[in-house]
From TrEMBL:
Pfam families: DUF4982 (PF16355), Glyco_hydro2_C5 (PF18565), Glyco_hydro_2 (PF00703), Glyco_hydro_2_C (PF02836), Glyco_hydro_2_N2 (PF22666). Residues 727-829 form the Glycoside hydrolase family domain. GO terms for biological process: carbohydrate metabolic process. The keyword Ribosomal protein does not apply. PANTHER family: BETA-GALACTOSIDASE, BETA-MANNOSIDASE. This is Beta-galactosidase. It comes from Aspergillus calidoustus.
Length: 862
């Protein structure tokens, strides 16, 4: 009979030491004798004397001098204290003179340095009981990683994006503390964007018994759904690490989205199985759920399945775990997808994983906030560019009803790449938000070649075995007839990049007329919040810039090399027609705009001092640009929208002509300045009305009205601002959870004496906090290098705005946030830290930008 042990999961995020550089006594992976990896992989001389009382004057030698245990002294290297997740790269300073590999343009990684870092933690454990097993899981270590425990090299990973799980059962010790050492090597890179450095995701220690549910070993699908009932199919993989066969009963318990346990007959939910020693078995069960509550876009109705493994002889609980799932079925049409009978275009964006001050080491709440920001704009799908997502992103997408497209990082059939693909599919195949797998991105040298077709076929086969329910796609950039290699013909959905931008969409569809198509990258419009014309000196794109201005402005031959030598006459230089076509074409299921939020690296323009791929509808602080309103007008057609730009505060330009445009989903718009309507109504074409001759600037009030069928249905009002007078704070939430590293994003802006936003304010603002919280960091959304890049207590406003990330501590109470600027009326806001569950049941959405008066007054009047 196998021993019974409870399953547990403990965070190892806190209490680490960090060293940047390879200039320390390095640990070994090849050793002569066990436990002699040396370096900092075991106790130091001082730690050995402290914990074991052993003299440390000389190293220990193995028999016959076959191996030597070399221990450093505590002072042999400088270590700083950190908690995880941690991104050391964005703590450094970008510089065009930083060393880089010759095959990578510095701009791709925004001129941040590469390098090697070590992480070390010393922790005690209780003795490992017979029949108990312990594993360590690293959700993500940047670059190429190696891990040592107590003088043993125990494994590593060759990608930043796949979790690394290591069985350490026999290598743990309880008499003295354990030493865990991690080497993260970011000298080379997988991505042409800024990748994190270090242990930038969570670390866990997990225990389980001999007989257990395998990691990611539960698959839940709902192949048959009607309003009256849903057929739910469950597969459970049960492993046995004991030598003897164990007979067990698998018990399934279902909880509905309202928290009610469903009453189901035992014969419908229980199964018996004998699991041979050192082997595993898969148990399959079908269950009918009556009157199911289905999952859909914007409605993340989740059922919870609890799986219990009970020994038949002992009647003891051997293992238990839970998994959330949704009752949903997706069908595909040539112009849309159909989710539980509801038809919709894929209205998606691409997202990189970094955000503002935090770089790639995001608190869970910031991951959630990015998803919420996308949903607020009308997004219903996120493509994770270009790798496997974090569990936190998928979990939140499940909860709010957002589709997710994960992507394989490396297109290869190497053992490492295949295992990375399998890990991604197994981790997320039961998540209702995950609706398709992307198997490569812009593999120009592979698409359409015999080798590429063979590799793609293998990857598709791996997906089909683990998850036969979801289609597969690729990020296709080659226009190929595909008659020789069948590269695209293998796919369920053909992914296409920038066919609207380059004006080849119909041509591409005609090459494969019988297949489904999705534009998994489209847009590529770089712009900067508060900037209107291309600023070559400052390296800023603006709301009136043309696409090719940023793409062609590069000082390294390789930068943006995938785009090639662009001929601006052969593609659309403006964005509105591209976006409109991408989401209205009758033979395209939808599109993903590149990108939803700005990101570090791959800057546009691709030269110093630009640090940011400024393609987002929101900047790195999460603040919306003018571009945001174009996309919102496309994604929310039932909500009448008008948004005029530029702003209406231009001292010194009185009487001058200003360029003027409106993003809208109305039929036509009119412009009124200080009570006088200017000219006739302008037609809205492709969600944009361009006042070609511009308008004459007069300080005061400008009102733009949108008409549908001759009736005013929306308006946008802006007012000329006076001198800066006071600060305003606007938090995105009023309550934070003390049970995790919860974060409120607090916006700061400057207003005049009448309360009107001052869009050109550059004041330096300082922040302080009273109560059980702290300022986690600051960000102003600037896309170029500035002294405020890693601001923690004071920051200069960028076009009138910035944000503070306010983190809760572990104690309950009121967190008072104070913002002070020289000569300005200070601002306060209060956020409550609570131990009560937050964002559970009723989800807290992102701020509705229509209600944020910073951008004037947006009204839907219909």
């Amino acid at each position: 009979m196998a021993n019974t042990q409870p399953r547990s999961r403990t965070s190892l995020d806190n209490g680490w030491k960090f060293h940047l550089g390879a200039d320390i006594l390095a640990p070994r992976r090849l050793v002569g004798k066990a436990g002699t990896a040396n370096g900092w992989s075991d106790l130091t001389k001082e730690e050995l004397e402290q914990y074991k009382g052993e003299a440390t004057a000389i190293e220990k030698m193995g028999a016959g001098f076959q191996a030597i245990q070399v221990r450093p002294r505590d002072g042999d290297a400088s270590w700083t204290e950190v908690n995880l997740p941690h991104d050391w790269r964005t703590e450094q300073t970008p510089d065009p003179n930083n060393d880089y590999p010759v095959d990578y343009p510095k701009g791709w990684h925004a001129w941040w340095p590469t390098g090697v870092a070590y992480y070390r933690t010393v922790f005690p454990t209780d003795p490992v009981r017979p029949g108990q097993h312990v594993q360590l899981t690293f959700d993500g270590i940047a670059g190429e990683s190696s891990v040592w425990l107590n003088g043993f090299w125990i494994g590593g990973q060759t990608t930043s994006y796949t979790p690394l799980t290591l069985d350490v059962t026999e290598l743990l010790r309880s008499d003295v503390p354990n030493v865990l050492l991690v080497r993260s090597d970011s000298s080379e890179a997988e991505g042409w964007w800024l990748e994190g450095g270090g242990i930038y995701r969570h670390v866990w220690m997990e225990t389980y018994g001999d007989v257990h549910i395998q990691q990611n070993g539960i698959l839940v699908t709902a192949p048959d759904i009607s309003p009256e009932r849903a057929l739910v199919r469950v597969e459970v993989e049960v492993g046995n690490l004991a030598l003897d066969t164990t007979a067990v009963t698998i018990e399934l318990t279902f909880t509905d989205p309202n928290g009610n346990t469903l009453s189901l007959a035992k014969d419908a939910t229980n199964s018996s199985v004998s699991v041979p020693g050192m082997s595993q078995r898969t148990v399959r069960k079908e269950v009918l759920l009556e009157n199911p509550e289905v999952w859909n876009i914007g409605k993340g109705s989740l059922y919870t399945l609890t799986v219990r493994v009970v020994g038949q002889q002992s009647d003891q609980l051997l293992d238990t775990t839970t998994i959330d799932f949704g009752v949903r079925r997706i069908e595909w049409a040539e112009d849309s997808i159909i989710i539980n009978k509801v038809k919709t275009k894929i209205k998606g964006v691409n997202l990189h994983q970094d955000f503002g001050y935090y770089g790639s080491a995001l608190p869970d709440r910031i991951i959630e906030a990015k998803v919420d920001m996308c949903a607020e704009m009308g997004v219903n799908a996120i493509r994770v560019a270009h790798h496997s997502p974090t569990p936190e992103l998928v979990r939140h997408a499940d909860r709010i009803g957002m589709l997710i497209l994960p992507e394989q990082r490396n297109m290869s059939t190497s053992a490492a790449s295949i295992e990375q693909l399998r890990a991604m599919v197994r981790a997320f195949r039961s998540s209702p938000s995950v609706f398709m797998w992307s198997l490569e991105n812009e593999e120009l040298s592979m698409q359409g070649t015999p080798m590429g077709s063979a590799v793609l076929a293998r990857l598709i086969k791996e997906c089909r075995v683990l998850d036969p329910t979801r289609p597969v796609t690729v990020g296709g950039v080659m226009n190929l007839p595909d008659t020789k290699t069948g590269y695209y013909q293998q796919l369920d959905v053909i992914g296409m990049h920038y066919r609207c931008l380059f004006g080849t969409l119909d041509e591409s569809i005609a090459l494969h007329p019988r297949q489904l198509h999705v534009l998994d990258e489209e847009g590529l419009y770089a712009c900067t919040r508060g900037v209107y014309h291309y600023d070559k000196a400052g390296a800023y794109s603006g709301s009136f810039s043309y696409i090719h201005e940023a793409l062609l402005d590069r000082d390294e031959p390789q930068a943006n090399g995938a785009i090639g030598d662009i001929d601006p006459s052969k593609f659309s230089p403006i964005i509105a027609p591209n976006i409109t076509l991408a989401f209205s074409h009758p033979k395209v299921t939808g599109a993903f705009i590149w990108t939803g939020i700005d990101y570090y690296g791959e800057p546009a323009p691709a030269r110093w001092p630009s640090l940011v791929g400024a393609y987002g509808q929101r900047d790195l602080a999460g603040l919306p640009k003018d571009y945001y309103w174009l996309v919102r007008s496309v994604f929310k057609p039932s909500e009448p929208i008008v948004h005029a730009f530029p702003h209406w505060t231009w001292p010194g330009k009185e009487g001058q002509n200003l360029p003027f445009a409106v993003y809208s989903n109305c039929d036509e718009v009119e412009v009124e300045i200080n009570g006088t309507v200017i000219g006739d109504r302008w037609p809205v074409v492709n969600h944009k009305a361009q006042i070609r001759e511009g308008v004459v600037y007069q300080p005061g009030r400008v009102c733009v009205r949108g008409y549908r069928e001759g009736i005013v249905v929306a308006e946008h009002i802006q007012q000329t601002a006076g001198a800066p007078s006071a600060l305003r704070l606007l938090p995105d939430r009023s309550v934070l959870d003390t049970d995790r590293r919860d974060v409120a994003i607090v916006r700061v802006s400057v207003v005049d004496s009448e309360g009107c936003f001052v869009p050109d304010a550059t004041d330096e603002i300082s922040f302080s906090v009273k109560g059980p919280g702290r300022v986690g960091g600051l960000c102003n959304g600037d896309t170029a290098f500035s002294k405020y890049l890693r601001a923690t207590d004071r920051i200069g406003l960028f076009h009138g705005q910035a944000v503070a990330f306010i983190e809760a501590g572990r104690e309950e109470g009121e967190i008072e946030v104070l913002a002070i600027g020289n000569g300005l009326e200070q601002a306060r806001t209060t956020i409550r830290a609570s131990s009560e569950p937050i964002n559970v049941g009723k989800l807290i959405p992102a701020l509705d930008e229509r209600q944020v008066s910073v951008y004037g007054t947006h009204r839907s009047l219909a």
